[in-house]
Amino acid sequence: MVNLDRIRNFSIIAHIDHGKSTLADRFLEITNTVNKEKIQEQFLDQMDLEREKGITIKSHPVRLEYKGYVLNLIDTPGHVDFSYEVSRALRSCEGAVLLVDVTQGVQAQTLANYLQAVNLNLKIVPVFNKVDLQNYNEEFLRKQVEDILFIPFEEFEKISAKTGYNVEKVLDRIISDIPCPTGNINYPFRALVFDAVYSSYKGVIVYIRVFDGKIKKGDKVKFLSTGRVFEVEEVGVFKPFYKEVGVLSAGEVGYFCASIKDLTETRVGDTVADSDVQPISGFREPKPMVFCGFYPADGDEYSKLEDAILKLKLNDSALFFEKEKSMALGYGFRCGFLGLLHMQIVQERLERHFGITIISTTPTVKYKIVFDSKELEIDSPSLWPDNKKIDKILEPYIKGKIIIPHEFLSEVMKLVQDKRGEIVHIEKVGNLLIIDIEAPLSEIIVDFFDKLKSYTKGFASFDYEFLDYRQSDLVKVDILVHNVKVDALSFIIHRQKAYYASRKIVQKLRETIGKQLFEYKIQAAIGGKVIASEAVKPFKKDVLAKCYGGDVTRKRKLLEKQKEGKKRMKTIGKVSIPQEAFWQVLSIGEE
Fold first, then answer.
1. Which distant-in-sequence residues (6+ apart) come within 8 Å of 577 by Cβ?
2. What is the domain-level CATH number for residue 499?
3. Which helix (H) or strand (E) holds 444?
4. Mean pLDDT over residues 105-126, rounded?
5. pTM, two decimal places
Protein backbone atom coordinates (compact mmCIF):
# COMPACT_ATOMS: atom_id res chain seq x y z
CA MET A 1 0.00 0.00 0.00
CA VAL A 2 1.40 3.40 -1.04
CA ASN A 3 0.67 6.70 0.73
CA LEU A 4 -1.33 9.13 -1.43
CA ASP A 5 1.28 11.87 -1.11
CA ARG A 6 3.91 9.58 -2.68
CA ILE A 7 1.85 8.92 -5.84
CA ARG A 8 1.84 10.93 -9.09
CA ASN A 9 -0.47 9.98 -11.97
CA PHE A 10 0.35 11.60 -15.31
CA SER A 11 0.14 11.29 -19.10
CA ILE A 12 2.37 12.49 -21.90
CA ILE A 13 0.38 14.48 -24.47
CA ALA A 14 1.57 15.88 -27.79
CA HIS A 15 1.03 15.94 -31.55
CA ILE A 16 1.86 12.78 -33.51
CA ASP A 17 5.62 12.07 -33.85
CA HIS A 18 6.74 14.65 -31.27
CA GLY A 19 8.52 12.01 -29.18
CA LYS A 20 6.02 10.74 -26.56
CA SER A 21 6.97 7.07 -26.84
CA THR A 22 10.69 7.89 -26.94
CA LEU A 23 10.37 9.96 -23.75
CA ALA A 24 8.55 7.04 -22.14
CA ASP A 25 11.53 4.82 -23.08
CA ARG A 26 13.92 7.18 -21.23
CA PHE A 27 11.64 7.16 -18.17
CA LEU A 28 11.77 3.34 -18.17
CA GLU A 29 15.58 3.45 -18.35
CA ILE A 30 16.18 6.15 -15.71
CA THR A 31 13.84 4.50 -13.18
CA ASN A 32 15.32 1.01 -13.91
CA THR A 33 11.81 -0.27 -14.67
CA VAL A 34 13.24 -2.13 -17.67
CA ASN A 35 16.83 -3.27 -18.01
CA LYS A 36 18.70 -0.95 -20.41
CA GLU A 37 20.00 -3.92 -22.42
CA LYS A 38 16.46 -5.23 -22.97
CA ILE A 39 14.81 -1.95 -23.91
CA GLN A 40 14.02 -1.29 -27.56
CA GLU A 41 12.70 1.83 -29.28
CA GLN A 42 9.06 2.65 -28.46
CA PHE A 43 9.08 -0.07 -25.78
CA LEU A 44 5.49 0.60 -24.70
CA ASP A 45 4.23 0.24 -28.29
CA GLN A 46 3.99 -3.53 -28.09
CA MET A 47 1.48 -3.96 -30.94
CA ASP A 48 3.14 -4.91 -34.26
CA LEU A 49 1.03 -2.31 -36.09
CA GLU A 50 2.31 0.41 -33.76
CA ARG A 51 5.90 -0.49 -34.54
CA GLU A 52 5.33 -0.69 -38.30
CA LYS A 53 3.45 2.60 -38.56
CA GLY A 54 5.57 4.39 -35.93
CA ILE A 55 2.47 5.61 -34.09
CA THR A 56 0.85 4.86 -30.73
CA ILE A 57 -2.62 3.35 -31.17
CA LYS A 58 -3.37 2.18 -27.63
CA SER A 59 -2.61 4.08 -24.44
CA HIS A 60 -0.14 2.09 -22.33
CA PRO A 61 0.06 2.26 -18.53
CA VAL A 62 3.31 1.68 -16.63
CA ARG A 63 4.33 2.10 -12.99
CA LEU A 64 7.66 3.86 -12.40
CA GLU A 65 9.43 4.09 -9.03
CA TYR A 66 11.72 7.09 -8.62
CA LYS A 67 13.23 8.75 -5.52
CA GLY A 68 10.73 7.10 -3.21
CA TYR A 69 7.71 8.07 -5.36
CA VAL A 70 5.36 5.93 -7.46
CA LEU A 71 4.79 7.56 -10.86
CA ASN A 72 1.95 6.05 -12.90
CA LEU A 73 2.46 6.93 -16.57
CA ILE A 74 -0.17 6.41 -19.24
CA ASP A 75 1.42 6.94 -22.67
CA THR A 76 -1.12 8.33 -25.15
CA PRO A 77 -1.58 8.39 -28.96
CA GLY A 78 -1.18 11.62 -30.96
CA HIS A 79 -3.25 10.87 -34.08
CA VAL A 80 -6.68 12.54 -34.22
CA ASP A 81 -8.39 9.16 -34.81
CA PHE A 82 -7.22 7.93 -31.41
CA SER A 83 -8.03 11.02 -29.34
CA TYR A 84 -10.57 8.93 -27.39
CA GLU A 85 -7.59 7.06 -25.90
CA VAL A 86 -6.25 10.43 -24.70
CA SER A 87 -9.55 11.33 -22.99
CA ARG A 88 -9.53 8.02 -21.08
CA ALA A 89 -5.93 8.46 -19.99
CA LEU A 90 -6.38 12.07 -18.85
CA ARG A 91 -9.40 11.19 -16.72
CA SER A 92 -7.13 8.85 -14.72
CA CYS A 93 -4.46 11.51 -14.08
CA GLU A 94 -3.80 14.66 -12.05
CA GLY A 95 -1.22 16.05 -14.48
CA ALA A 96 0.25 15.86 -17.96
CA VAL A 97 3.63 16.37 -19.61
CA LEU A 98 2.96 18.59 -22.63
CA LEU A 99 5.58 17.76 -25.27
CA VAL A 100 6.40 20.24 -28.07
CA ASP A 101 8.84 19.37 -30.87
CA VAL A 102 11.16 22.40 -31.22
CA THR A 103 11.52 21.83 -34.97
CA GLN A 104 7.75 21.82 -35.59
CA GLY A 105 6.36 23.94 -32.78
CA VAL A 106 2.74 23.88 -31.64
CA GLN A 107 0.63 21.65 -33.90
CA ALA A 108 -3.14 21.19 -34.07
CA GLN A 109 -3.21 18.02 -31.97
CA THR A 110 -0.86 19.61 -29.41
CA LEU A 111 -3.45 22.34 -28.92
CA ALA A 112 -6.43 19.94 -28.87
CA ASN A 113 -4.90 17.65 -26.22
CA TYR A 114 -3.67 20.62 -24.19
CA LEU A 115 -7.16 22.15 -24.08
CA GLN A 116 -8.62 18.78 -23.08
CA ALA A 117 -6.15 18.54 -20.19
CA VAL A 118 -6.82 22.13 -19.09
CA ASN A 119 -10.60 21.49 -19.13
CA LEU A 120 -10.02 18.60 -16.71
CA ASN A 121 -7.98 20.95 -14.45
CA LEU A 122 -4.81 18.92 -14.88
CA LYS A 123 -1.45 20.41 -13.93
CA ILE A 124 0.71 20.88 -17.03
CA VAL A 125 4.49 20.26 -17.14
CA PRO A 126 5.58 21.92 -20.44
CA VAL A 127 8.58 20.40 -22.25
CA PHE A 128 10.49 21.23 -25.44
CA ASN A 129 11.79 18.04 -27.09
CA LYS A 130 14.53 17.42 -29.73
CA VAL A 131 16.76 20.33 -28.61
CA ASP A 132 19.75 18.22 -29.78
CA LEU A 133 18.79 19.00 -33.40
CA GLN A 134 19.95 22.63 -33.00
CA ASN A 135 18.13 23.87 -36.14
CA TYR A 136 15.22 25.59 -34.45
CA ASN A 137 14.17 29.20 -34.05
CA GLU A 138 13.92 30.10 -30.37
CA GLU A 139 12.07 33.40 -30.93
CA PHE A 140 9.55 31.69 -33.18
CA LEU A 141 8.95 29.04 -30.49
CA ARG A 142 8.59 31.68 -27.79
CA LYS A 143 5.91 33.52 -29.77
CA GLN A 144 4.08 30.28 -30.52
CA VAL A 145 3.82 28.90 -26.99
CA GLU A 146 3.01 32.27 -25.44
CA ASP A 147 0.43 33.33 -28.06
CA ILE A 148 -1.24 29.95 -28.71
CA LEU A 149 -0.86 28.07 -25.40
CA PHE A 150 -0.43 31.11 -23.11
CA ILE A 151 2.44 29.34 -21.33
CA PRO A 152 5.56 31.46 -20.55
CA PHE A 153 8.56 30.29 -22.58
CA GLU A 154 10.71 30.06 -19.42
CA GLU A 155 8.44 27.39 -17.89
CA PHE A 156 9.45 24.85 -20.55
CA GLU A 157 12.09 22.21 -19.79
CA LYS A 158 14.45 21.72 -22.74
CA ILE A 159 15.20 18.03 -23.33
CA SER A 160 16.23 15.45 -25.88
CA ALA A 161 14.21 12.28 -25.36
CA LYS A 162 16.46 10.52 -27.87
CA THR A 163 19.76 11.18 -26.04
CA GLY A 164 18.31 11.44 -22.52
CA TYR A 165 19.51 15.05 -22.07
CA ASN A 166 17.67 16.74 -19.13
CA VAL A 167 15.04 13.98 -18.94
CA GLU A 168 15.63 13.54 -15.19
CA LYS A 169 14.57 17.17 -14.72
CA VAL A 170 11.17 16.27 -16.19
CA LEU A 171 10.77 13.47 -13.61
CA ASP A 172 11.67 15.94 -10.86
CA ARG A 173 9.10 18.42 -12.22
CA ILE A 174 6.45 15.69 -12.24
CA ILE A 175 7.08 15.12 -8.53
CA SER A 176 7.23 18.82 -7.61
CA ASP A 177 4.51 20.26 -9.91
CA ILE A 178 1.84 17.58 -10.28
CA PRO A 179 -0.36 17.20 -7.19
CA CYS A 180 -0.84 13.88 -5.46
CA PRO A 181 -4.20 12.15 -6.13
CA THR A 182 -7.19 12.85 -3.91
CA GLY A 183 -9.21 10.04 -2.37
CA ASN A 184 -9.79 8.29 0.90
CA ILE A 185 -8.67 4.75 1.62
CA ASN A 186 -11.37 4.42 4.31
CA TYR A 187 -14.23 5.16 1.89
CA PRO A 188 -16.02 2.35 -0.04
CA PHE A 189 -14.04 1.09 -3.03
CA ARG A 190 -14.61 3.03 -6.25
CA ALA A 191 -12.52 2.97 -9.47
CA LEU A 192 -12.66 4.09 -13.11
CA VAL A 193 -12.26 1.45 -15.84
CA PHE A 194 -9.96 3.14 -18.35
CA ASP A 195 -9.13 0.09 -20.49
CA ALA A 196 -9.51 -3.69 -20.69
CA VAL A 197 -7.90 -6.55 -22.61
CA TYR A 198 -8.89 -10.17 -23.15
CA SER A 199 -6.68 -13.08 -22.11
CA SER A 200 -7.56 -16.66 -23.02
CA TYR A 201 -6.05 -17.73 -19.66
CA LYS A 202 -7.43 -15.08 -17.27
CA GLY A 203 -10.52 -13.82 -19.08
CA VAL A 204 -11.01 -10.05 -19.15
CA ILE A 205 -8.16 -8.07 -17.53
CA VAL A 206 -9.66 -4.78 -16.32
CA TYR A 207 -7.41 -1.67 -16.13
CA ILE A 208 -8.47 0.70 -13.33
CA ARG A 209 -7.59 3.91 -11.56
CA VAL A 210 -8.68 3.60 -7.92
CA PHE A 211 -10.33 6.79 -6.62
CA ASP A 212 -11.46 5.62 -3.15
CA GLY A 213 -11.02 2.61 -0.87
CA LYS A 214 -9.00 -0.46 -1.81
CA ILE A 215 -9.32 -3.69 -3.77
CA LYS A 216 -7.74 -7.09 -3.06
CA LYS A 217 -8.10 -10.73 -3.97
CA GLY A 218 -11.40 -12.21 -2.71
CA ASP A 219 -13.32 -8.89 -2.79
CA LYS A 220 -16.67 -8.75 -4.56
CA VAL A 221 -16.95 -5.83 -7.03
CA LYS A 222 -19.85 -4.50 -9.07
CA PHE A 223 -19.90 -2.86 -12.51
CA LEU A 224 -22.39 -0.03 -12.06
CA SER A 225 -23.55 0.12 -15.71
CA THR A 226 -24.58 -3.56 -15.83
CA GLY A 227 -25.10 -4.37 -12.14
CA ARG A 228 -23.04 -7.57 -12.52
CA VAL A 229 -20.98 -8.66 -9.49
CA PHE A 230 -17.69 -10.60 -9.69
CA GLU A 231 -15.20 -11.97 -7.19
CA VAL A 232 -11.66 -10.62 -7.64
CA GLU A 233 -9.05 -13.33 -8.27
CA GLU A 234 -5.95 -11.20 -8.88
CA VAL A 235 -4.90 -7.56 -8.56
CA GLY A 236 -1.68 -6.10 -9.88
CA VAL A 237 0.30 -3.22 -11.39
CA PHE A 238 2.11 -2.57 -14.70
CA LYS A 239 5.91 -2.97 -14.42
CA PRO A 240 5.37 -2.57 -17.45
CA PHE A 241 4.15 -6.17 -17.70
CA TYR A 242 1.58 -7.56 -15.28
CA LYS A 243 2.89 -7.95 -11.73
CA GLU A 244 0.56 -9.27 -9.02
CA VAL A 245 0.35 -7.30 -5.74
CA GLY A 246 -1.60 -7.81 -2.53
CA VAL A 247 -3.78 -4.70 -2.71
CA LEU A 248 -4.51 -1.59 -4.80
CA SER A 249 -5.58 1.45 -2.79
CA ALA A 250 -6.89 4.98 -3.44
CA GLY A 251 -4.79 6.90 -5.97
CA GLU A 252 -3.15 3.86 -7.55
CA VAL A 253 -3.34 2.60 -11.14
CA GLY A 254 -3.44 -1.15 -11.82
CA TYR A 255 -5.56 -4.07 -13.00
CA PHE A 256 -7.73 -6.87 -11.67
CA CYS A 257 -8.98 -10.23 -12.98
CA ALA A 258 -12.25 -11.80 -11.87
CA SER A 259 -12.92 -14.66 -14.32
CA ILE A 260 -15.00 -12.36 -16.50
CA LYS A 261 -15.64 -14.51 -19.57
CA ASP A 262 -18.44 -12.55 -21.23
CA LEU A 263 -16.85 -9.80 -23.30
CA THR A 264 -19.91 -7.56 -23.00
CA GLU A 265 -19.67 -7.36 -19.20
CA THR A 266 -16.89 -4.73 -19.20
CA ARG A 267 -17.39 -1.19 -20.47
CA VAL A 268 -14.52 1.23 -20.66
CA GLY A 269 -15.48 4.40 -18.78
CA ASP A 270 -17.65 2.44 -16.35
CA THR A 271 -17.31 2.75 -12.57
CA VAL A 272 -16.51 -0.44 -10.63
CA ALA A 273 -17.24 -0.46 -6.89
CA ASP A 274 -18.00 -2.68 -3.89
CA SER A 275 -21.33 -0.97 -3.20
CA ASP A 276 -23.87 1.41 -4.78
CA VAL A 277 -21.83 4.61 -4.95
CA GLN A 278 -21.90 7.70 -7.16
CA PRO A 279 -20.40 6.88 -10.60
CA ILE A 280 -17.18 8.69 -11.53
CA SER A 281 -18.06 11.52 -13.91
CA GLY A 282 -16.13 13.27 -16.64
CA PHE A 283 -15.74 10.39 -19.07
CA ARG A 284 -16.74 11.29 -22.64
CA GLU A 285 -18.31 8.42 -24.57
CA PRO A 286 -16.68 8.21 -28.02
CA LYS A 287 -19.08 8.59 -30.96
CA PRO A 288 -18.33 6.78 -34.21
CA MET A 289 -17.97 9.15 -37.18
CA VAL A 290 -17.20 6.77 -40.08
CA PHE A 291 -19.10 3.57 -40.95
CA CYS A 292 -18.48 0.62 -43.26
CA GLY A 293 -19.38 -3.03 -43.64
CA PHE A 294 -16.97 -5.84 -42.67
CA TYR A 295 -17.69 -9.20 -44.35
CA PRO A 296 -15.67 -12.43 -44.16
CA ALA A 297 -14.27 -13.39 -47.59
CA ASP A 298 -15.19 -16.96 -46.61
CA GLY A 299 -18.84 -17.02 -45.51
CA ASP A 300 -18.10 -19.93 -43.13
CA GLU A 301 -15.93 -17.57 -41.01
CA TYR A 302 -18.87 -15.37 -39.98
CA SER A 303 -18.99 -16.63 -36.37
CA LYS A 304 -15.18 -16.40 -36.15
CA LEU A 305 -15.40 -12.73 -37.28
CA GLU A 306 -18.13 -12.03 -34.70
CA ASP A 307 -15.96 -13.45 -31.90
CA ALA A 308 -12.93 -11.44 -33.10
CA ILE A 309 -14.87 -8.15 -33.25
CA LEU A 310 -16.23 -8.78 -29.75
CA LYS A 311 -12.68 -9.20 -28.42
CA LEU A 312 -11.47 -6.04 -30.18
CA LYS A 313 -14.49 -4.09 -28.92
CA LEU A 314 -13.48 -4.88 -25.34
CA ASN A 315 -10.11 -3.23 -25.90
CA ASP A 316 -11.43 -0.44 -28.15
CA SER A 317 -14.39 1.43 -26.71
CA ALA A 318 -14.79 3.57 -29.86
CA LEU A 319 -15.52 0.54 -32.07
CA PHE A 320 -19.25 0.16 -32.81
CA PHE A 321 -20.78 -2.81 -34.63
CA GLU A 322 -24.10 -4.49 -35.45
CA LYS A 323 -25.10 -7.36 -37.72
CA GLU A 324 -26.13 -6.68 -41.32
CA LYS A 325 -26.74 -8.59 -44.55
CA SER A 326 -25.66 -7.63 -48.07
CA MET A 327 -27.21 -9.08 -51.24
CA ALA A 328 -23.72 -9.23 -52.78
CA LEU A 329 -21.57 -10.24 -49.79
CA GLY A 330 -23.86 -12.22 -47.49
CA TYR A 331 -23.77 -11.87 -43.69
CA GLY A 332 -21.40 -9.40 -42.01
CA PHE A 333 -21.24 -6.44 -39.64
CA ARG A 334 -21.89 -2.72 -39.90
CA CYS A 335 -19.01 -1.13 -38.02
CA GLY A 336 -18.46 2.44 -36.78
CA PHE A 337 -15.08 4.14 -36.30
CA LEU A 338 -13.64 7.52 -35.31
CA GLY A 339 -11.86 7.96 -38.64
CA LEU A 340 -10.35 6.17 -41.63
CA LEU A 341 -7.06 5.35 -39.89
CA HIS A 342 -9.02 3.84 -36.99
CA MET A 343 -10.98 1.76 -39.54
CA GLN A 344 -7.82 0.54 -41.31
CA ILE A 345 -6.14 -0.35 -37.99
CA VAL A 346 -9.18 -2.39 -36.86
CA GLN A 347 -9.30 -4.26 -40.18
CA GLU A 348 -5.57 -5.03 -40.03
CA ARG A 349 -5.86 -6.23 -36.41
CA LEU A 350 -8.75 -8.53 -37.33
CA GLU A 351 -6.84 -9.98 -40.28
CA ARG A 352 -3.47 -10.36 -38.52
CA HIS A 353 -4.41 -11.33 -34.99
CA PHE A 354 -7.40 -13.54 -35.84
CA GLY A 355 -6.46 -14.81 -39.32
CA ILE A 356 -9.66 -13.67 -41.07
CA THR A 357 -9.69 -12.27 -44.61
CA ILE A 358 -12.12 -9.34 -44.65
CA ILE A 359 -13.95 -7.51 -47.42
CA SER A 360 -14.72 -3.94 -46.33
CA THR A 361 -17.32 -1.80 -48.09
CA THR A 362 -17.14 1.87 -49.00
CA PRO A 363 -16.78 4.07 -45.87
CA THR A 364 -19.62 6.51 -45.20
CA VAL A 365 -20.89 8.82 -42.44
CA LYS A 366 -24.24 9.00 -40.62
CA TYR A 367 -26.90 11.04 -42.44
CA LYS A 368 -30.32 12.22 -41.28
CA ILE A 369 -33.17 11.95 -43.79
CA VAL A 370 -36.56 13.60 -43.23
CA PHE A 371 -39.52 12.01 -45.06
CA ASP A 372 -43.24 11.63 -44.27
CA SER A 373 -42.63 13.93 -41.23
CA LYS A 374 -40.23 11.32 -39.80
CA GLU A 375 -36.46 11.56 -39.27
CA LEU A 376 -34.37 8.55 -40.18
CA GLU A 377 -30.67 8.13 -39.33
CA ILE A 378 -28.74 6.05 -41.86
CA ASP A 379 -25.10 4.97 -41.91
CA SER A 380 -25.34 2.76 -44.99
CA PRO A 381 -26.40 3.56 -48.59
CA SER A 382 -28.50 0.37 -48.55
CA LEU A 383 -30.90 2.07 -46.08
CA TRP A 384 -31.50 5.06 -48.39
CA PRO A 385 -35.28 5.52 -48.91
CA ASP A 386 -37.09 6.18 -52.20
CA ASN A 387 -35.99 9.60 -53.54
CA LYS A 388 -39.60 10.68 -54.18
CA LYS A 389 -40.43 10.43 -50.46
CA ILE A 390 -37.46 12.48 -49.20
CA ASP A 391 -38.23 15.99 -47.89
CA LYS A 392 -34.70 16.95 -46.89
CA ILE A 393 -31.29 15.42 -46.16
CA LEU A 394 -28.94 16.50 -43.36
CA GLU A 395 -25.24 15.62 -43.22
CA PRO A 396 -22.72 15.94 -40.35
CA TYR A 397 -20.38 18.95 -40.30
CA ILE A 398 -17.12 19.34 -38.39
CA LYS A 399 -15.29 22.34 -37.04
CA GLY A 400 -11.60 22.03 -37.78
CA LYS A 401 -8.43 23.84 -36.83
CA ILE A 402 -5.60 24.08 -39.38
CA ILE A 403 -2.18 25.47 -38.44
CA ILE A 404 0.02 26.44 -41.43
CA PRO A 405 2.82 28.84 -42.43
CA HIS A 406 1.16 31.90 -44.03
CA GLU A 407 2.65 31.31 -47.51
CA PHE A 408 0.35 28.30 -48.05
CA LEU A 409 -2.90 30.17 -47.35
CA SER A 410 -4.16 30.32 -50.97
CA GLU A 411 -3.65 26.56 -51.54
CA VAL A 412 -5.43 25.69 -48.29
CA MET A 413 -8.33 28.06 -49.05
CA LYS A 414 -8.81 26.34 -52.43
CA LEU A 415 -8.66 22.88 -50.81
CA VAL A 416 -11.29 23.83 -48.20
CA GLN A 417 -13.51 25.24 -50.96
CA ASP A 418 -13.12 22.06 -53.07
CA LYS A 419 -14.27 20.07 -50.05
CA ARG A 420 -17.46 22.21 -49.77
CA GLY A 421 -16.10 23.80 -46.59
CA GLU A 422 -15.78 27.41 -45.48
CA ILE A 423 -13.19 29.34 -43.53
CA VAL A 424 -14.79 31.07 -40.52
CA HIS A 425 -11.75 32.66 -38.88
CA ILE A 426 -8.04 33.23 -39.50
CA GLU A 427 -5.64 34.27 -36.74
CA LYS A 428 -2.00 35.23 -37.32
CA VAL A 429 0.55 34.06 -34.75
CA GLY A 430 4.11 34.97 -35.78
CA ASN A 431 4.77 33.24 -39.10
CA LEU A 432 1.83 30.91 -38.57
CA LEU A 433 -1.86 31.08 -39.35
CA ILE A 434 -4.52 29.33 -37.24
CA ILE A 435 -7.47 28.72 -39.56
CA ASP A 436 -10.90 27.70 -38.23
CA ILE A 437 -13.02 25.88 -40.81
CA GLU A 438 -16.44 24.25 -41.05
CA ALA A 439 -16.88 21.44 -43.58
CA PRO A 440 -18.90 18.27 -44.30
CA LEU A 441 -17.41 15.28 -42.49
CA SER A 442 -17.82 13.06 -45.57
CA GLU A 443 -15.40 15.30 -47.50
CA ILE A 444 -12.86 15.45 -44.65
CA ILE A 445 -12.48 11.74 -43.83
CA VAL A 446 -11.28 10.58 -47.23
CA ASP A 447 -8.18 12.41 -48.42
CA PHE A 448 -8.35 15.90 -46.90
CA PHE A 449 -5.41 15.45 -44.53
CA ASP A 450 -3.20 13.84 -47.19
CA LYS A 451 -3.88 16.70 -49.61
CA LEU A 452 -3.35 19.28 -46.87
CA LYS A 453 0.08 17.81 -46.14
CA SER A 454 0.87 17.68 -49.85
CA TYR A 455 -0.19 21.28 -50.56
CA THR A 456 1.81 22.64 -47.60
CA LYS A 457 4.94 20.48 -48.09
CA GLY A 458 4.23 18.66 -44.85
CA PHE A 459 4.05 21.80 -42.67
CA ALA A 460 0.29 21.74 -41.93
CA SER A 461 -1.37 20.23 -38.87
CA PHE A 462 -5.07 19.52 -38.55
CA ASP A 463 -7.52 18.63 -35.81
CA TYR A 464 -11.33 18.46 -35.90
CA GLU A 465 -14.43 17.65 -33.88
CA PHE A 466 -18.12 17.16 -34.65
CA LEU A 467 -20.12 20.39 -35.00
CA ASP A 468 -23.73 19.82 -36.16
CA TYR A 469 -26.00 18.56 -38.96
CA ARG A 470 -26.82 20.75 -41.98
CA GLN A 471 -29.12 20.39 -44.97
CA SER A 472 -27.40 19.29 -48.21
CA ASP A 473 -28.38 18.25 -51.73
CA LEU A 474 -27.16 14.66 -51.58
CA VAL A 475 -27.91 11.68 -53.81
CA LYS A 476 -27.30 7.95 -53.63
CA VAL A 477 -25.37 6.50 -56.57
CA ASP A 478 -25.91 2.77 -57.26
CA ILE A 479 -23.24 0.71 -59.01
CA LEU A 480 -24.43 -2.07 -61.33
CA VAL A 481 -22.07 -4.80 -62.53
CA HIS A 482 -23.47 -6.95 -65.36
CA ASN A 483 -26.95 -5.51 -64.63
CA VAL A 484 -26.78 -6.57 -60.98
CA LYS A 485 -26.88 -3.84 -58.34
CA VAL A 486 -23.88 -4.30 -55.99
CA ASP A 487 -25.19 -2.68 -52.80
CA ALA A 488 -21.75 -2.76 -51.17
CA LEU A 489 -20.37 -0.45 -53.90
CA SER A 490 -23.14 2.18 -53.61
CA PHE A 491 -22.15 5.58 -52.25
CA ILE A 492 -23.70 8.89 -51.17
CA ILE A 493 -22.40 12.14 -52.66
CA HIS A 494 -23.36 15.77 -53.31
CA ARG A 495 -25.43 16.12 -56.49
CA GLN A 496 -22.95 18.56 -58.07
CA LYS A 497 -20.14 15.99 -57.78
CA ALA A 498 -22.20 12.92 -58.70
CA TYR A 499 -21.58 12.80 -62.48
CA TYR A 500 -17.84 13.47 -62.31
CA ALA A 501 -17.35 10.99 -59.46
CA SER A 502 -19.44 8.29 -61.19
CA ARG A 503 -17.40 8.57 -64.40
CA LYS A 504 -14.18 8.09 -62.43
CA ILE A 505 -15.59 5.22 -60.37
CA VAL A 506 -16.81 3.12 -63.33
CA GLN A 507 -13.47 3.70 -65.13
CA LYS A 508 -11.51 2.60 -62.06
CA LEU A 509 -13.78 -0.42 -61.52
CA ARG A 510 -13.27 -1.41 -65.14
CA GLU A 511 -9.50 -1.55 -64.53
CA THR A 512 -9.84 -3.23 -61.13
CA ILE A 513 -12.40 -5.94 -61.98
CA GLY A 514 -10.89 -6.56 -65.42
CA LYS A 515 -11.95 -8.80 -68.27
CA GLN A 516 -14.11 -11.90 -67.80
CA LEU A 517 -14.95 -14.69 -70.24
CA PHE A 518 -17.97 -12.68 -71.40
CA GLU A 519 -18.79 -9.05 -72.14
CA TYR A 520 -20.40 -7.07 -69.31
CA LYS A 521 -21.15 -3.47 -68.30
CA ILE A 522 -20.32 -1.42 -65.22
CA GLN A 523 -22.88 1.34 -64.67
CA ALA A 524 -23.57 4.12 -62.16
CA ALA A 525 -27.17 5.18 -61.66
CA ILE A 526 -29.21 7.63 -59.59
CA GLY A 527 -32.61 6.03 -59.09
CA GLY A 528 -33.39 4.45 -62.46
CA LYS A 529 -31.25 6.88 -64.50
CA VAL A 530 -27.82 5.66 -65.65
CA ILE A 531 -25.30 8.52 -65.50
CA ALA A 532 -22.08 6.66 -66.36
CA SER A 533 -21.34 3.39 -68.12
CA GLU A 534 -18.33 1.33 -69.23
CA ALA A 535 -18.42 -1.84 -71.36
CA VAL A 536 -15.77 -4.47 -70.66
CA LYS A 537 -14.86 -6.72 -73.62
CA PRO A 538 -14.28 -10.44 -72.95
CA PHE A 539 -11.06 -12.41 -73.12
CA LYS A 540 -10.72 -13.78 -76.63
CA LYS A 541 -9.74 -17.43 -76.66
CA ASP A 542 -8.04 -18.56 -79.86
CA VAL A 543 -10.15 -21.64 -80.73
CA LEU A 544 -8.38 -21.97 -84.08
CA ALA A 545 -4.92 -22.35 -82.55
CA LYS A 546 -4.77 -26.08 -83.28
CA CYS A 547 -6.23 -25.82 -86.79
CA TYR A 548 -3.44 -25.96 -89.32
CA GLY A 549 -4.89 -25.49 -92.83
CA GLY A 550 -7.77 -27.83 -93.71
CA ASP A 551 -11.41 -27.14 -94.46
CA VAL A 552 -12.59 -23.56 -93.75
CA THR A 553 -16.04 -24.87 -92.72
CA ARG A 554 -14.48 -26.60 -89.67
CA LYS A 555 -12.98 -23.29 -88.53
CA ARG A 556 -16.33 -21.57 -89.01
CA LYS A 557 -18.06 -24.25 -86.90
CA LEU A 558 -15.57 -23.75 -84.04
CA LEU A 559 -16.10 -19.96 -84.11
CA GLU A 560 -19.90 -20.39 -84.12
CA LYS A 561 -19.66 -22.83 -81.20
CA GLN A 562 -17.52 -20.31 -79.25
CA LYS A 563 -20.06 -17.55 -79.98
CA GLU A 564 -22.93 -19.69 -78.65
CA GLY A 565 -20.95 -20.50 -75.50
CA LYS A 566 -20.33 -16.79 -74.85
CA LYS A 567 -24.04 -16.02 -75.24
CA ARG A 568 -24.84 -18.64 -72.59
CA MET A 569 -22.14 -17.26 -70.24
CA LYS A 570 -23.46 -13.74 -70.63
CA THR A 571 -26.84 -14.75 -69.23
CA ILE A 572 -25.61 -17.02 -66.41
CA GLY A 573 -22.10 -15.70 -65.86
CA LYS A 574 -21.15 -14.11 -62.52
CA VAL A 575 -18.54 -11.35 -62.27
CA SER A 576 -16.02 -11.87 -59.48
CA ILE A 577 -15.21 -8.54 -57.77
CA PRO A 578 -11.84 -8.17 -55.97
CA GLN A 579 -11.48 -6.44 -52.56
CA GLU A 580 -9.74 -3.39 -54.11
CA ALA A 581 -12.96 -2.51 -55.94
CA PHE A 582 -14.70 -1.73 -52.66
CA TRP A 583 -12.06 0.93 -51.95
CA GLN A 584 -12.25 2.64 -55.34
CA VAL A 585 -14.84 5.13 -54.08
CA LEU A 586 -12.17 6.51 -51.74
CA SER A 587 -10.10 7.78 -54.64
CA ILE A 588 -12.90 9.82 -56.25
CA GLY A 589 -11.24 13.15 -55.58
CA GLU A 590 -7.59 12.26 -56.06
CA GLU A 591 -7.11 14.02 -59.38
1. 328, 481, 486, 489, 513
2. 3.30.70.2570
3. helix 441-455
4. 84
5. 0.65
